[in-house]
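Sequence design from tokenized structure. All designs in this work follow the same two-part layout: the structure record, then the generated sequence. An example of the structure record is given first.
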């Protein structure tokens, strides 16, 4: 942005000229925008005015911001970001995730972690690292499964969570005791909170993956990458431009998308990336520099210290271009309306993740494969049958069944959600004999 601002200031006399001179409003092609009036209530406007003000001030002072900067502010601004101050999950929230829908999901992920860890020779001490744990449900179920196998004394849990509110919620759920790190100790320890589960498992919280100690780790990211900011670029007449967010002066507290009239620094970075094929890019593309950095760290650590990565999210393999959207009360919502009141998200580009991870032959990767295939190959139906047999009532059995259907039906979450795994490159031969569970159809046909 700084380069863009410099160019812009050299060419314009005052900022108000800039609005009309440099940026033109553009129509977004794919969003199924609901009627704005449907969602606007006085209370919700007041609650989100402070974030709107922050954004407006920022834009008035220095010009339109990237979609990534907008998304970052809206989701994680320390004072009023969407994730920072409240529980947004579940039926009463804005969206519901797989671990919240059925225990079978996390149980099968836990069994996968165990089996792949054992395949690596059960190296210890094991760190389980979860990025963006939400309510902590996935980690809670994993602790339960590891305890069942008598492994509670063999690992520690490391949670990368930016939201102080959610970290407290997670601690309440996972720990019998926990405490925030004292201010005076923050320079000497990397974690901002520490706790212990009832079975004695040590649990730590960090703001960044870099802060987690380097050691053999299983990295889990469920619906984490879709929350990371994306830049949006668009090609018009063979010219690439970045899409930015500006104040819409025609309406109160409103924002609009505009197109930059120069190549922004982030657009240059994107166009110079070795893995993009400029000739086959769709007209709109999204690029998450934060995803690139996180995957790079994860793959680097897996190569250096050993480990396994499992990324689960909704996404595509590079063919989609404009997926930035908002959810409020389980419905699509205008992402520029009442910033902070709705979840902002973008589909994960698994082709990008794969290219970054596989750079310099650090790791080998499997997937993305569909969630329904993974859960089915991991024995989901057998687990469902066992749980239904033990259900306390026919209603409980029905709810187990409908939860599992929700996760696996292709028209629900079965196809949209994908599983993607990374292992150290040195295990390539070993994994060709003992393939990663869940990623291959192991029903061998014997003639
Ligand atoms: C969509 S929620 C997913 C929650 C959980 N994994 C689940 O599936 O229920 C995203 C989670 O990532 C956290 N988060 C978002 N951006 C983050 C960031 N930059 N660094 C660390 N955590 C972040 C949020 O606070 C939240 O816990």
């Amino acid at each position: 942005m700084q380069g863009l601002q410099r160019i812009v200031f050299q060419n314009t006399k005052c900022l108000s000229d800039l609005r009309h001179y440099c940026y033109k409003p553009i129509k977004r092609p794919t969003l199924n925008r609901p009627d704005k009036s449907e969602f606007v209530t006085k209370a919700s406007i007041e609650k989100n005015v402070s974030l709107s003000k922050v954004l407006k001030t920022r834009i008035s002072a220095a010009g339109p911001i990237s979609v990534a900067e907008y998304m970052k502010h809206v989701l994680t601004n320390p004072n009023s970001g969407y994730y920072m101050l409240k529980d947004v999950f579940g039926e009463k929230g804005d969206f519901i995730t797989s671990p919240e829908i059925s225990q079978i999901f996390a149980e099968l992920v836990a069994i996968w972690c165990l089996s792949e860890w054992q395949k690596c020779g059960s190296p210890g001490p094991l760190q389980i690292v979860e990025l963006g744990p939400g309510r902590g449900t996935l980690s809670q179920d994993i602790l339960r499964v590891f305890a069942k196998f008598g492994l509670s004394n063999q690992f520690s849990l490391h949670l990368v969570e930016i939201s102080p509110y959610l970290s407290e919620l997670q601690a309440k759920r996972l720990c019998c005791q926990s405490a925030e790190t004292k201010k005076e100790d923050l320079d000497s320890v990397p974690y901002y909170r520490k706790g212990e589960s009832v079975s004695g498992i040590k649990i730590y919280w960090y703001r960044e993956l870099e802060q987690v100690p380097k050691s053999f780790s299983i990295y889990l990211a469920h619906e984490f990458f879709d929350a990371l900011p994306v830049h949006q670029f668009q090609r018009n007449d063979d010219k690439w431009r970045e899409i930015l967010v500006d104040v819409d002066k025609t309406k109160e507290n409103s924002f609009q998308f505009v197109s930059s009239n120069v190549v922004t620094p982030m657009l240059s970075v994107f166009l110079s990336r070795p893995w993009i094929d400029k000739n086959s890019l769709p007209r709109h593309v999204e690029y998450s520099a934060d995803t690139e950095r996180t995957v790079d760290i994860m793959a680097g650590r897996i190569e250096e210290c050993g480990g396994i990565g499992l990324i689960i999210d909704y996404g595509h393999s590079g063919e989609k271009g404009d997926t930035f959207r908002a959810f409020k009360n389980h419905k699509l919502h205008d992402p520029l309306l009442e910033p902070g009141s709705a979840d902002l998200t973008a589909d994960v580009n698994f082709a990008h993740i794969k290219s970054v991870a596989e750079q310099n032959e650090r790791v080998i990767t499997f997937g993305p494969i569909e969630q329904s295939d993974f859960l089915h190959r991991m024995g989901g139906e057998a687990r469902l049958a066992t749980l239904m047999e033990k259900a306390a009532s026919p209603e409980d059995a029905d709810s187990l069944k409908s939860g599992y259907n929700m996760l696996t039906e292709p028209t629900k979450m079965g196809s949209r959600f994908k599983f993607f795994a990374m292992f150290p490159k040195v295990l390539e031969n070993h994994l060709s004999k003992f393939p990663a569970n869940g990623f291959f159809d192991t029903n061998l046909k014997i003639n």
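The longest strand covers residues 307-316. We note this feature because it recurs in several other targets discussed in the main text.
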